[in-house]
Amino acid sequence: MHSSERLLEIAVPTPLRRSFHYLPPDELPADTKPGCRFQVPFGSKSLIGILIGYTEESNTPLEKLRRAEKLLDPKPILPEAILKLCLWSADYYHHPVGDVLASAIPVLLRKGKPGQQVSHRLVATKKGKETDQSSLQRAPQQKAALTLLVRQMNGYDRKQLKAAGISSATIQALIRKGLVRRQEMTAPVTAFSLNKVNSENIILSSEQEVALNSIGDHGTWLIQGITGSGKTEIYLRAIEKILRKNFQALVLVPEIGLTPQTVQRFSNRFDVPVVLLHSGLTNQERLTAWQMASSGQAGIVIGTRSAVFTPLARPGMIVVDEEHDASLKQHDGFRYSARDLAVLRGQFEHIPVLLGSATPSLESLNNAWTGKYTSVQLRHRPVDIAKESYQIINLRNRETRDGFSKPLIRLIEQHLQSGSQVLVFLNRRGFAPVLHCPECHWTANCHRCDARMTFHLPGQRLLCHHCGNENPMPQYCEQCHAGNLLLLGIGTQKIEDRLKILFPGVRVLRIDRDSTRRKGSLASMLAELASGEPLILVGTQMIAKGHHFSEVTLSVIVDIDSSFYSTDFKAMERMGQLILQVGGRSGRSGKAGNVVIQSHFPDQPVLKQLIKEGYTQFARNLLQERRDNNLPPFCHQALVRAESKSRTRALEFLEELSATERSSPRVDLLGPVPSTMEKREGFYRAQLLFSSTSRRILHAELDLRIKFAENSKLARKVRWSIDVDPVDLY
Ligand code: ADP
Ligand code: ZN
Ligand code: ZN
Questions:
Q1: Is the CB of 225 within 6 Å of ligand 1?
Q2: What's the pLDDT at 547?
Q3: pLDDT tops 50 at residue 135
Q4: Suppose 555 and one of 300, 423, 492, 666 were both cysteines; which one would form an S-S bond, judging by CB atoms 3.0 to 4.6 Å apart?
Q5: Ligand 1, from 222, 383, 385: best to mutate by most atoms within 8 Å of Cβ?
Q6: By three-state DSSP, how is residue 323 classified?
């Protein structure tokens, strides 16, 4: 269908995997670029969408095309490269384009707030300029204010007027008389400039020099360096170079709240504005930070995964720290990998991307080893700290009580006596994960999930870690009413308890989601650690990320064995990363670190190799295994998940989906099967895995299946989603 007008192609925030065509609003400036927002009619509603392009033709008959209501932006809120990144993502992750674009921008922009910072100014009206000021003879305050405002065409903001001694009552009076009015103006943008670098007299090691000098104008670098080897120092030096040319840097980190020190190092080093983008911000704070990034005011933008979409006026570099971290992947809704998108964004913007980690993901290592990324290694610590040493305590034929074996207790004692701190890692919060009846073997399960309830000490409550369901601790077995219920297994609270009994008088701190809920509690515990007093720190993976515990000389991994039972092909990779990340927290300031792992499988070859030969060799072998078994990164995967309130419906839908003819024999289907935890939050879940050695073929297949699903009656009765390059296979 032809139309004489150019049609707007607009991404509207709907769950539909398509964009929509609109007739342009009246008097649309001819140079309106993609990336601008439009108010558009959609069904009976009016929504804010984003222009993604123009088209001459539409499948929609002309008489059915609706007209966009109005243009909201004088210039695009998303630059070309970011728009391209979003469109690419919608395609690659098979996610509705409207939703992709909506998740890429701050909430307030979705609601129509301006893309540029505006200041509210007070200006003299026409009447105010022409009025005879002698008429204000009896209101000298008002007269003074008006005189001031008449002389300044752009007016003043409230603060400035207050500073000039003019009260808000005076202003109100002038507004009532129609002599002054409020006006919104785009705030002038002051681009940052770098004047001072506070480099703390650090002289780069030769290894660091080599690494820094290898970083070029564009491409991707994988910086693999043991913890404390000076990766962050490399980021800082590389960023310094680009700041000097007035380009901006984007730094992606797994979790900002956990690592305030890292953020501080960036802002202490340079005298440029550093803005943070993370989930703890209010909508207004987020918008302001975004505006400072996109206008070019901020020199450095530090953010969690969604910050990968933040526009920069003068992009210069992207850093992805802890690139192996699973939290860089979005786990629901629009499931993207911020790391992978950062690499792509670097290509779109022709800027360098630095991926850093002590324990890089196997896919990044593979990319480095096949020459896609430039590989940079830091093998030593620049300051004279010995590398930590690893030791396994064999739990076979050895008694433990609440997780502690005798040799472990002795070791902790020795380290405390020598005046050091000890770190005890267990990735399970709560007191005990199982409440068990010894008479009939009943266990307390969540009625909404296929999961056990974890007992938590405060309030003596049972909590489901999957849905938040909470019950008081029962006195009697629900099945046989016996009264001698047992708490089995260990959580961080029990570890804390036990340590207090084992080492009376020694301070024990616990860092997990429960103990850090109150604002400031994490900071105060970190401060206590930094004081250097001998103490024991117990924690979950919250303590395995980014922290520098300079007084810790012993790190304990209480239990690693669950990795050996896992059916997830990534379990071993994660185990290795976790051990080295926990181990890397120790051994600073002249004292060597010791890492102790308790296991019933001390001879497990992968574990032994990790400890003896290090991460690179460990990763090389795991990659070989992946290659032999045709697993990622040697094949590409996409997981279709479905869930429904009825036990069978999700499976039925996936069965229907898997029954259609494959487009190519090179696509493999696994399933459908019920998920490992079939029931969660009251929904029954199932999954279907697609894999292929060809990305192109896999995506063609997915396109086909999605079309099918979109026309399926069953699909409407379930919630289903696609996860491309899934990180968790359940
Ligand atoms: P990573 O990010 O690899 O863990 P960092 O960059 O945080 O390592 O460095 C660890 C510590 O060593 C920091 O306190 C840092 O200031 C210091 N450091 C880094 N490079 C040097 C150097 N060349 N000389 C002295 N100290 C250094
Ligand atoms: Zn019972
Ligand atoms: Zn539950």
A1: yes
A2: 79
A3: yes
A4: 423
A5: 383
A6: coil
